[in-house]
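name: query_chain
kind: protein
chains: 1
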Amino acid sequence: MRILIADDSALMRSILKRLLQFEADFVLAGEASNGLQAVELSRTLSPDLVIMDIDMPMMNGLEATRRIMSEYPIPILIFSNDVGPDLACEAMASGAVEVMQKPDMDRFNEPVFYAGFLKKLHSLGEARPYPRRPAASDRAATGGRDRFRLLVMGASTGGPAAVREILSKLPPDFPLPIALVQHMEMGFDAGYVRWLGDGTSLPVRLAERDVVMEPGVVWAAPANRHIRIDRSAARPTLILDDGAKVLNQRPSVDVLFTSAAEAFGNRLAGVLLTGMGRDGARGCLSIVEKGGVTLVQDEATSVIFGMPKSAIELGGASRVLPLPEIPGAILSMLAPVEREEVPR
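structure:
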């Protein structure tokens, strides 16, 4: 895997180059000391992955990411100091597949850190960035919700932009509550909720304990807490859960999807989006086995096809769709069924 390092700090570039030497599969494609150089080298060197700082001269890392993604999409890891939740969301909206806070210098020498860092680089190098296009301004009209009671969504790497694209195309009178699990680091959840809310006409809130979910409101799982659906409640009700990680994830897509399937059976719709690993696959299967419907993102538009692929292979995908078609498919499911008139 050929990696381009873009950082204005010669010391940081040296540290990253040393880390890459621990992995035989990694080759240094080049170095950039500013954002403009990163754009030019990405074009001429065609690396498999770019490690991008944000605060750089001539052009910052966010603008460089936007330029690269608009011209020749390459997986980009934003690796920078002081990455707050708002900045992280802006980076992912710009096209970055992942955002990491630079650790203290001492941590670079810890085997646990560099083993995890190299593993992440391997995963991100397999990503297939999906070029983002402006969301359409027109909104399809919704119909009734005679069948469905709840929409659940799950995503991981590449998910923030995909979720936002879907929510941006749902109308303000969307008739179902929406529960969402997005894998993310601690401290990013509140900013993620604000960022999603800025891109949709639907209210987006951080999930709370024992909250009755209202139609047309999106409830996102807090970082490091599962969310479940209470099967004993008459209306969709969220429960926060501090239980053990599932497939090394908390919040877990499987936990949400499985509990929702138990609660609402064939009146549940689920959407599984891009992400590495297998989380969500068994949850999708639970939904299908209970008579519900799942929409799974296809390989061509997934940044990482791991989670969708696992659901498909397990038999948990009712339909496999490119990202731009998922909002329309959701609305079609909620449209009234036209009944043929019987001649008299």
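note: The two ends are 70 Å apart (CA to CA).
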